[in-house]
Amino acid sequence: MQEKIKLIECPRDAMQGIKTWIPTEDKVRYLSQLLKVGFDTIDCGSFVSEKAVPQMKDTAEVLRRLDLTEASSKLLAIVANARGAETAAQFDEIHYLGFPFSISETFQQRNTNSSIAESLVRVEEIQKLAVKQKKELVIYISMGFGNPYGDEWNPEIAINWCNKLYNDLGIKIMALSDTVGSAVPATISQLFSDLIPALPSVEFGAHLHTVPDKYHEKMEAAYNSGCRRFDGALKGYGGCHMAADELTGNMPMELMIGFLKEKGIPTGLNDEAFRKAMAMAGEIFPV
User: Fold this and answer.
1) Residue 54 in contact with residue 86, Cβ under 8 Å?
2) Does 154 have pLDDT greater than 90?
């Protein structure tokens, strides 16, 4: 039986670093079209500091305007602390809370203004809240494939953190994140090949950033190593604006879909709705 592929479309990640304000009505229109495509999950917004991420300050309003009556996709929102998680958890529309947990001390400070030790406490708080509010917590292992800041990094560090998050806190969904596009196929293969059989109760995902000519080798490495959950964004928009001045874009969703089709792997997506979403992306995002 063909294993189910989960595709997570990330308009939040695509939009968050854009300085030009994208009107709330445009976000609602775009998300409404994405909901028709049939993605497993849509990373729709965040509940974090408006000063840090002003583009996402209208997430609550966007959620209130969405019509989810016929949508099959689950919604995910990013939070950076327990306060943000409490706000997000008030929305029945949200199924997943996402937290960026960096295994780089430097990047964790840049991204969430906290140390790794402090972030571990936050994960524990958010996990308890998620269980209480019947949400699921997705941990993004930021800098999961390398570290450009000089902090110590090797695959064993990433593997040890994943083990700790599962064994100590019961985290069952983790997305290894190529925050600055530094992952190479050998590292991708090593991490997924080690982690997936070692922690069979955990759903591991790949949140890969890439330049266009490197996407195929990264997808190939992750897929062949057992990964079946993939994050991407239409046309490769976005990237983490906390990480670098020159952004490496998100994995383009259309290229991921093409990769899966090459392998004869069904995506279950509505092709016509996807084409309309692609066209709309060209209108929504500033050139």
Assistant:
1) no
2) no
In this structure, the strands spanning 136-142 and 203-208 are: unpaired
pLDDT of residue 112 exceeding 90? no
| Tokens of residue 5, six digits | 């592929």
The model's confidence at residue 114, banded by pLDDT at 50, 70 and 90, is: confident
The residue extents of the domains of the chain are: 6-284
d(CA 136, CA 267): 23
C-alpha span between 151 and 110 (Å, rounded): 13
Residue 115: the pLDDT is 82
Rounded distance between C-alpha atoms, residue 58 and residue 21, angstroms: 11
What integer pLDDT is reported at residue 185 of this predicted model? 95
**Can you list the pairs that 239-243 forms with residues at least 24 positions away whose Cβ atoms lie under 8 Å?**
239/13, 239/17, 239/181, 239/209, 240/13, 240/17, 240/111, 240/142, 240/179, 240/180, 240/209, 241/16, 241/17, 242/52, 242/107, 242/110, 242/111, 243/107, 243/110, 243/111, 243/179, 243/180
Distance CA 216, CA 222 (A): 10
CATH class of the domain whose range is 6-284 = alpha beta
**C-beta atoms surrounding 168 within 10 Å:** 11
Q: Is the pLDDT of residue 108 over 50?
A: yes
Alpha-carbon distance of 86 to 64, in angstroms, equals 17
CA angle 15, 20, 23 (to 5 degrees): 75
**Is the full-model pTM beyond 0.90?**
yes
In tens, the pLDDT along 202-243 reads: 999 999 988 888 899 999 999 999 999 999 999 999 754 443
Amino acid at 265: I
